[in-house]
Amino acid sequence: MSGAGVPDFFYREAQRLGYVARSAFKLLQLQEKYKLIKPGSSVLDLGCAPGAWLQVACQSLGPPKSGGVVVGIDLKKVKVPSTYCDARVQTVCADVMSFSRDHIRSLSPKKGFSVILSDMCPLVSGIKTKDAALSAELGMRALDLAVGSAVLAQEEDDEHETKEEADTEDDKGILLPGGNLVIKLLEGEDMQEFGQMCKPLFKKASWLRPKATRSSSREIYLICQGLRPSRLRNF
């Protein structure tokens, strides 16, 4: 009963509670454990189809009077679910790999986001190394959007960073100081590199495989909490 597409406890619970997909329970567990989304947060959901994480994110904002915004981006056109979502939620049909930071930043009243969620996953081929590499590429794009190309370049090799890169507006990250980042990856050799890359940028970086993850899945989530303002100086 745990194979992909087979109804299980979380599938039935999603239907009972009005979530558009069982994946809602993955974010619910992340939210319960880490308190990533606070009332009034600005949340960016990368790979938002079919919309379950939009529902949980909006719930986590608190009542409408608390403010906040949820922006979902996906290659597919995603209709905002009527259950659990309100006017604070919007979706954009676009390719995250080519969508500019400036455009994404403009979708938030705060000109940035306090939480970025990346549930992006490639079309799996069944070849583990290939799928893990494609997943890592998507994860790197999420990290790059969050902290900025210049910061990542500095992390990789301080000597290779140039003033021209630092001065480019669209190279600046869209995650606000103190913000949280969640990246889904498929287990592979790039996992440890991701963890090592994020540790200096955030106050805390940890891994979690939510209980709602199917037993046949190789999904795992990297949870990065508290983007360090000091890492953003000069950018």
UniProtKB/TrEMBL annotation:
One of its GO terms (molecular function) is rRNA (uridine-2'-O-)-methyltransferase activity. InterPro entries: RNA_methyltr_RlmE (IPR050082), RNA_MeTrfase_FtsJ_dom (IPR002877), rRNA-MeTfrase_E (IPR015507), SAM-dependent_MTases_sf (IPR029063). Residues 19-226 form the Ribosomal RNA methyltransferase FtsJ domain. The keyword Transferase applies. Pfam families: FtsJ (PF01728). The active site is at K184. GO terms for biological process: RNA methylation. It comes from the Eukaryota. PANTHER family: RIBOSOMAL RNA METHYLTRANSFERASE (PTHR10920), RRNA METHYLTRANSFERASE 2, MITOCHONDRIAL (PTHR10920:SF18). Belongs to the class I-like SAM-binding methyltransferase superfamily. RNA methyltransferase RlmE family. This is rRNA methyltransferase 2, mitochondrial. It comes from Spinacia oleracea (Spinach). The lineage of its organism: Eukaryota, Viridiplantae, Streptophyta, Embryophyta, Tracheophyta. The gene is LOC110794812.
